[in-house]
């Protein structure tokens, strides 16, 4: 399918595009679903967002400045408040009326899981729920939002796929993974749809902080499920009772590039520094990125272009549901 990322149905879903810390140095330009947007911080430190186009002469506001919680256009200095309303036209002099049409196109903004989420139109569903976020036994580790030169459709297909583990992830955890993927049953996993399975994984030194074990291999009970359109939750449970919950997020910038980030929740004793805990996840992500950036264009979403096998069932089902959403 050509041009999936500009489909109106996607404009009604939430997408994670940045972290609050990304707004500390001024306005941030973000591309989402083919649209150019600007993000900035209001006076209370909350994220504001709008289409990155000044209604006066179409200058990009993201090249301007944030002044007292408002965004100032770099061209003629018009200022807009977090709701998108123009509050100052310097050339008109003090007290002059503001043209009523001087408004920025606004978008919905939310902060959740340490990330800034945007929705371009009226949302049809909430931000994916992670129950562990309100469980005091768990800590949350948020990571930066990265730019991948790969379609969000390719990213989700990869997140749902375990048959690439022994190949793409040979250098991290995949060396001890059986290439044969057992038949999995797809089903509801709470708010998520996917499958549960067990794997034996290599446990290299770099991963021992994540697994909490120093044995050569570890056995992991896992589940992987998706929440339309582009969120995947993976849970990893070790025999020690340690649980590692991973939220993988792909937000389409356009058909061929994406914002990628992941969030981790863990019920450990909080003693190991966060950066050490996620070092293995970062390495795994980097391995996937190299492979995905070699693939051209979006994943064909129809049911006939690609050859799929039993191991691809979760991805095939996700594609089917995505087609439904976009139909
Ligand atoms: S283009 Fe923005 S103030 Fe003129
Ligand atoms: Fe992977």
Supply database-style keywords:
single chain; 327 residues; alpha+beta; 8-stranded antiparallel β-sheet; 4-stranded antiparallel β-sheet; 31% strand; globular; binds FE2/S2 (inorganic) cluster; binds fe (ii) ion
Please give a structural write-up:
The mean pLDDT is 94. The relative contact order is 0.16. Helices cover 14% and strands 31% of the residues. It is globular and about 70 Å long. The chain has 6 helices and 18 strands. The strands form 4 sheets. Strands 11, 12, 13, 14, 15, 16, 17 and 18 form an 8-stranded antiparallel sheet that branches. A 4-stranded antiparallel sheet has the order 5-6-7-8, with no helix packed on it. The longest helix is centred in the C-terminal third of the chain and has 14 residues. The protein is of the alpha+beta class and 327 residues long. A hairpin with a 6-residue loop joins strand 6 and strand 7. Fe (ii) ion binds next to helix 5.
